[in-house]
UniProtKB/TrEMBL annotation:
Residues 5-242 form the CN hydrolase domain. GO terms for molecular function: hydrolase activity, acting on carbon-nitrogen (but not peptide) bonds, in linear amides. PROSITE patterns: CN_HYDROLASE. PANTHER family: BETA-UREIDOPROPIONASE, NITRILASE C965.09-RELATED. InterPro entries: Aliph_Amidase/BUP, C-N_Hydrolase, C-N_Hydrolase_sf. It holds the Pfam family CN_hydrolase. This is Putative amidohydrolase. Signal peptide: none annotated.
Length: 289
C-alpha cells in the first residue's frame, strides 16, 4: 500500500530580518501556485531572519526579531497553512522562550491552520549561535501518511538525534539548514548515513547562494539520493512513499540489513557507559514498528 507525501523544498535566500510576514506569505503562495500538488512545503533554517552578519550585530538582530510560539508570526503562518491547505514548515525561527531565552525552533503548521509541532534545536553550533539548547526530540503525525521528525542543521552531526527520532517512529527526518561554510560536503554524507543507518527518508533544505552553499537533497531509506540541487535558488519537488520505509525495514537495505530487527529474545542488554545507560534488546524496535 502506497503512502505518498508530495513535497516541495524551497532552497531560497533568507528574507530580510525586519520584513513583515507579507513577503513570506507571497513567497509561499507563489510556490504553491507553481507546484499545486505539493502538500508538504519546507524552507531553510532561519529563513525569516536575514543574512549572517558579525556576531554582535547578528545577536541584536535575533533578539529584536524573536517572538513566543503564540506570537503574531506563528498565528499568521497557521492561517496561511490553513488557507492553502498544506503542511507548512517555514524553516526555523528565533523563538523567545517563556523565560526570555532564545531558541532556534522549527515549526510545522497543519492544513487545518494550527501549530502542529515545534522543535528547539538541541545542538546549537557553538560558539557561533546564541541559543539555549532544546530538551526533547520531536516527531509529529501527518494523518493518513506517516510520522515526521525534526533535526535542525548541526543536529545532523550527532547520530543520537536521528536514531532517537527513528526510534520514536519517524519515517522522514526534516532537516532545515543554513550552511554558509565549506562543510556542506560533509553534511551531504551525513544525510545519506543517517538515512541508511535508521532506514528513513532524510530531507535536508539549505539556504541558497550567495548566502548559503545550497545543495539541498532528498535521500531515501536505503541512502540513495533521489534529488539534489545546485547552489542557486530553486525548488526541489518529489513524492515520498512512506511505505518504502516499511519495505526496507522488512526486507533489509539492499535486501540484506535489517538494523531494527537485530536482536533476539535471548540477547542480553549491553551497557552504554557513555550514556550511563544501556541498549536493551526489548526496547530496540521503533515505535509502531
Amino acid at each position: 500500500m502506497s503512502r505518498p507525501l508530495p513535497i516541495a523544498l524551497a532552497q531560497a535566500a533568507p528574507r530580510p530580518a525586519d520584513e513583515d510576514v507579507s513577503g513570506f506569505t507571497r513567497e509561499v503562495e507563489e510556490l504553491t501556485a507553481r507546484f499545486p500538488e505539493a502538500r508538504f512545503v519546507v524552507f531553510p533554517e532561519l529563513h525569516l531572519h536575514g543574512t549572517r552578519v558579525p556576531p554582535r550585530e547578528r545577536d541584536a538582530e535575533l533578539e529584536a526579531s524573536a517572538e513566543p510560539l503564540d506570537g503574531p508570526r506563528s498565528k499568521a503562518f497557521a492561517q496561511l497553512a490553513g488557507d492553502l491547505g498544506i503542511w507548512l514548515v517555514p524553516g526555523s525561527v528565533c523563538e523567545r522562550g517563556p523565560d526570555g531565552a532564545l531558541h532556534n525552533t522549527a515549526l510545522a503548521f497543519s492544513p487545518e491552520g494550527r501549530l502542529a509541532a515545534w522543535y528547539r534545536k538541541i545542538f546549537p553550533w557553538r560558539p557561533y549561535e546564541p541559543y539555549r539548547p532544546g530538551d526533547r526530540f520531536v516527531v509529529f503525525d501527518v494523518p493518513g501518511t506517516g510520522r515526521v521528525g525534526f533535526a535542525i542543521c548541526y543536529d545532523a552531526w550527532f547520530p543520537e538525534v536521528a536514531r532517537h527520532l527513528a526510534w520514536m517512529g519517524a519515517e522522514v527526518i526534516v532537516n532545515p539548514v543554513m550552511t554558509t561554510t565549506a562543510d556542506r560536503a560533509q553534511e551531504l554524507v551525513l544525510a545519506r548515513a543517517n538515512a541508511i543507518v535508521n532506514q528513513v527518508y532524510v530531507v535536508s533544505v539549505n539556504t541558497a547562494a550567495p548566502v548559503g552553499t545550497g545543495r539541498s537533497l532528498v535521500v531515501d531509506p536505503e541512502g540513495r539520493v533521489r534529488a539534489e540541487a545546485g547552489e542557486v535558488a530553486t525548488v526541489l519537488t518529489d513524492v515520498l512513499d512512506l511505505d518504502d520505509v516499511t519495505r526496507v525495514r522488512r526486507y533489509g537495505t539492499a535486501g540484506l540489513n535489517r538494523v531494527w530487527a537485530q536482536f533476539t529474545e535471548a540477547d542480553e542488554p549491553l551497557d552504554l557507559p557513555l550514556y550511563q545507560g544501556r541498549i536493551d534488546p526489548a526496547r530496540w524496535y521503533p515505535a509502531g514498528g
